[in-house]
Amino acid sequence: AYKVLIKSNPFPVICGRVCDYQCQSKCRRGTVDEPVAIKNLKRFITDNASRPEISSIPVTRKEKIGIIGAGPAGLTAARGLTRRGYKVVVWEELPEPGGMLRYGIPAYRLPRDILVKEIEEIKNLGVEIKCNIRVGRDISFEEIKKRFDYVFLAPGVSKSQKMGIEGENMQGILGGIEFLRDFNLHEKTWLRKEKRLGERVAVIGGGNSAVDAARCALRLGAKVNIIYRRRKEDMPAFLEEIKAAEEEGVKIECLVSPLKIIGVEGRVKGLVCQKMKLGEFDQSGRKKPIPIQGSEFTLNIDTLIIAIGQRPDELFEKIIKEVKLQTINSKLFAGGDIMSGPSTVVKAIAA
């Protein structure tokens, strides 16, 4: 069973823990009683099966492949190409490979020893990963194109979107992705309280990044409110993560939208919000939230974390503009979140 999993998925152990298991909703067994527990079965198999030794695969092709980004999409491509005999080099700007697996998902959800082991198996195939190298700073994109026959762009979407409301440039306002990255990079520093969020934290958003940021803030001793403009059942985050957050003490305020940020001497002190009601369905298939006039109220906060969406780095945003999986340049390919938008680990592997 493990050999079947590893054929098409380079991260079976990881997926046994953080997969969104949407396939279970399509399982025909559900018409009889309940779907096969695919995620749980995957975890049981990968936790208990003996793992074959991974040995280096000889290079049999003359073409060299450069990959930008050592997240799930980049590493999946590197593994597949190496198994086909190509020489592959991966560049990663952060200290360790893994992308959002390492710097976006907290360790309490994805233990780091599991992540390290699965990445080591990819490296053992012969994949060369160069970390702490930022394309555009330490090596130019033009240099990579000259040195390699083909280039695969998988840098992900590493920056948080802004809300575009008054007061958003004050101190004490963090992007959700930036906060999670810093927490995962410097967890001991945060836990020693050498970095602080303050006592009251509000998180804007309803996705997995918002819930992860809220739960991390809670672990740092803060009282945390998630502000979401639709209903709880409309939140894109995994249901089990939402339930876990509430059980731990995170308060989720639904049908509430931020209006403006207020502060004192340039530092955030409060968030003015407005209650919402649901109107007609919008293009997302969900009912559109409509402001309720006269329902404004203010939350007193020390830190605001904005997790409403993600966007790519400006350099790669320009490069992959108006392209699909293969760019207009036959040497360049792109995949992962930068093409499909921020999504799940499984979709990043497949993208």
Give a written overview of the molecule.
The protein has 351 residues and is an alpha/beta fold. The chain folds into two domains: 54-157 and 312-350, FAD/NAD(P)-binding domain; 159-310, FAD/NAD(P)-binding domain (3-Layer(bba) Sandwich). It has helices at residues 2-8, 12-18, 38-48, 72-83, 100-103, 112-124, 141-147, 176-185, 187-191, 208-219, 239-248, 314-319, 337-340, 345-350, and strands at residues 64-68, 87-91, 128-130, 150-153, 159-160, 173-175, 200-204, 223-227, 251-253, 256-264, 267-281, 287-291, 297-300, 303-306, 310-311, 332-334. The strands form four sheets. The chain has a five-stranded parallel beta sheet with strand order 3-2-1-4-16, sandwiched between helices. α2 crosses α3, α8 (176-185) crosses α10 (208-219) and α10 (208-219) runs parallel beside α11. 39% of the residues are buried. The model has no long low-confidence stretch (mean pLDDT 92). It comes from marine sediment metagenome. This is FAD/NAD(P)-binding domain-containing protein. Residues 1-51 form the Dihydroprymidine dehydrogenase domain.
